[in-house]
Specification:
Blueprint (H helix, E strand, L loop, with lengths): L1 H28 L5 H15 L1 H7 L19 H19 L8 H19 L16 H11 L6 H30 L6 H16 L6 H10 L7 H33 L15 H13 L5 H25 L7 H10 L9 H22 L11 E5 L11 E4 L9 E5 L12 H8 L4 H9 L6 H5 L3 H17 L7 H25 L5 H12 L3 H13 L6 H20 L5 H9 L6 H16 L1
Parallel strand pairs: 1-3
Antiparallel strand pairs: 2-3
Helix pairs in contact: 4-5, 6-9, 7-10, 8-10, 9-10, 12-19, 13-20, 14-15, 15-18, 15-19, 18-22, 19-20, 20-21, 22-24
């Protein structure tokens, strides 16, 4: 009897294993039966193809899946083409699901995914039109930053993974070199200043003694927090890390240095992408992808000119009322930017004081935001200094989202390379934009959404994300956060002017063939910002065409939608509910966001 029961149990287990195997084969290699599974399949495909992204998200470690933490992403030409081939197949599979049988939530997910995949496929013909080694977010400076700030070091095995990643740098950089040579063959070379800057950066990186390199020093600091390690084990790991820096990392960087040294004489001072093959068409595509609108380069340029004039008029009124009557705006802002009373000391104490002030502003904004929003995200945020090795070429600030499992908070990175560039009156707006209720609030809200496919929580649409962050600067003004602080309000307007100027200079460089010096001069004249800061910004727009236009276009669209809701709803308008309508679906193309807000207006009117 026992043997008979055991035989039946074994048959049932075997049957279940066969069913599971069929399910997994269908899920991985074919179009899944379930649309929801298809959404997750696409998400999983992307993640497990990009181990550094998977590490950044901290999504699967809780399930004991950790091997990816010892790998680096594939940047070879073959892998790049694989991305486009898979996007085409995924889009075809998506279209095979009948829209009539989808729930409203599924139809929205399908709409978003269709838009995203279509834009990616459209960009295949421009897949080489970028500079993967650049002074801002290039492979060469992102790797040490990733290892120091994102690679998790919570246990002994994480140290082993750290060493594996150091050992994999040579392969990744060989793949990178192969892709760079493809670009060179196609006549796609970075501007001369980019090559000069990355050579300076990389030469400085490899000139450090291994023990002083950020890869070694950051490991040493963080390994001290791993309780399961003995002092002897820490010392052994530290020795292995420094050896890997010398034996694996530095030779990989030297190959890049040698390549760019040979490339330098072939470069030119032409900065715009108009110089690239089909450059004008590529720039139109870059604007389409980044703004998620159909605005043409000339339309974006004209919009920028109008916005610059409008904002200047508002700034003029504040300046005239606060001791700067009739002084040119750029000159007045330059004077305010140099006034010692608006600066911290240009030393380590001043930098610590600035970080403390940013933290205070974000803490205060978090409490105030509870009156403006229905949904309050749980994720924490920290303020840190931009790593010193990359601060010379980095922007004034940026935000990095936290891990989905809560092991790493969101981080607002402030550039403190020169405290003379950090005016106190500009700090509130920067804190609101990068932190709360800007990027941290929006990204954390999206990550914590329930009942949506994972891609909906993480898919990046620049115009939405940056437009939201810029909208929240304006929202802070509407909420009275600048009450009694005219210079803080002036800082807000300068920030908005800065984004409007971007529309002018980005299109100027890439569509109107402005030289870099003309763009720098225009931004300096209009904003009064420091020369080093403006130069870093202009150089950013040169290597990431179209991205800088997303901010103001996104802000204006959200403001337009808010005004429409207020007008059509009248006394029924509640800004908390409006914000929920904007945030509750995760990031969206502006075209789809408009559809969703229109639907919210119709529901509320009933």
């Amino acid at each position: 009897m026992f043997r008979r029961v055991l035989k039946w149990l074994l048959r049932i287990v075997a049957l279940l294993l066969i069913v599971l195997a069929i399910f997994l084969v269908n899920l991985v290699w074919f179009r899944p039966w379930s649309l929801n599974l298809f959404y997750e399949k696409i998400f999983v495909q992307l993640l497990f193809d990009e181990p550094e992204l998977l590490s950044s998200l901290g999504l699967v470690e809780r399930f004991g899946i950790t091997a990816h933490n010892g790998k680096l992403g594939d940047v070879s030409p073959a892998h790049q083409q694989h991305f486009f081939d898979r996007a085409k197949q995924n889009l075809a599979d998506l279209h095979a699901y009948s829209l009539d049988r989808q729930t409203p939530s599924q139809r929205l997910s399908t709409h978003i995914l269709d838009w995203f995949l279509s834009r990616q496929i459209e960009g295949e013909k421009y897949q080489w039109h970028n500079y993967p080694v650049n002074q801002l977010f290039g492979v060469q400076n992102e790797f040490p930053s990733f290892m120091a700030n994102t690679h998790r070091l919570l246990a002994k095995r994480d140290c082993d993974y750290y060493l594996q990643r150091l050992g994999a740098v040579g392969t990744k950089f060989d793949q990178l070199l192969a892709s760079l040579r493809v670009r060179e063959e196609k006549g796609i070379l970075p501007p001369r200043f980019v090559v000069e800057k990355v050579l300076k950066e990389m030469n400085g990186f490899v000139a450090q003694p291994a023990a002083e390199n950020i890869l070694s020093s950051s490991f040493k600091t963080r390994a001290l927090l791993i309780k399961e390690l003995t002092d002897a084990q820490r010392a052994d790991y530290q020795k292995q890390v420094e050896t890997a820096v010398t034996a694996s990392v530095y030779p990989a960087y030297q190959k890049l240095i040698d390549y760019f040294t040979g490339l330098l004489p072939k470069t030119t001072t032409d900065d715009g992408v108009w110089k690239l093959p089909d450059g004008d068409a590529f720039y139109a595509y870059a604007l389409r992808e980044n703004t998620t609108t159909t605005l043409k380069p000339q339309e974006v340029h004209d919009l920028g000119v109008r916005e610059v004039a409008r904002i200047e008029a508002e700034m003029r009124a504040i300046l005239d009322a606060n001791g700067f009557k009739d002084r040119p705006i750029g000159e007045a802002m330059d004077a305010l930017g140099k006034d010692p009373k608006f600066h911290f000391s240009n030393d380590d104490k001043g930098r610590a004081d600035a970080l403390a002030e940013y933290t205070r502003l974000i803490t205060q904004a978090t409490e105030r935001s509870r009156e403006l929003f229905v949904t309050v995200p749980r994720a924490k945020i920290e303020v840190r200094r931009v790593p010193e090795f990359k601060e010379a070429t980095s922007a004034g600030a940026y935000y990095q989202g936290g891990a989905l499992d809560g092991t790493r908070p969101g981080v607002f990175y402030a550039n403190l390379r020169d405290m003379n560039e950090v005016a106190k009156w500009a700090m509130p707006t920067l804190a609101y934009h990068e932190g709360v209720p800007g990027h941290h609030w929006q990204i954390s809200t999206a990550q914590e959404l329930k009942g949506l496919p994972q891609f909906r929580k993480l898919i990046p649409f620049t115009a939405y994300q940056e437009g939201w962050a810029l909208y929240t600067e304006w929202l802070a003004k509407q909420a009275g956060w600048y009450e009694g602080d005219p210079f803080g309000d002036l800082g807000r307007l300068q920030g908005e002017l800065f984004r409007a100027v971007r529309l002018v200079v980005d299109t100027g460089i890439h569509a109107k063939r402005w030289p870099r010096e003309q763009a720098i001069s225009y931004m300096r004249e209009k904003t009064g910002m420091g020369e080093k800061e403006v130069t870093a910004e202009i150089e950013r727009y040169i290597v990431i065409p179209g991205q800088a236009c997303a901010y103001k276009v996104g802000m204006l669209k959200i403001q337009e939608l808010r005004m429409r809701a207020q007008t059509e709803l009248g006394p029924k308008f509640d800004q908390r509910q409006f914000h929920d309508a904007v945030l509750k679906n995760g990031a969206l193309p502006l075209e789809i966001l408009e559809e969703e807000v229109n639907a919210y207006i119709q529901r509320t009117r009933q």
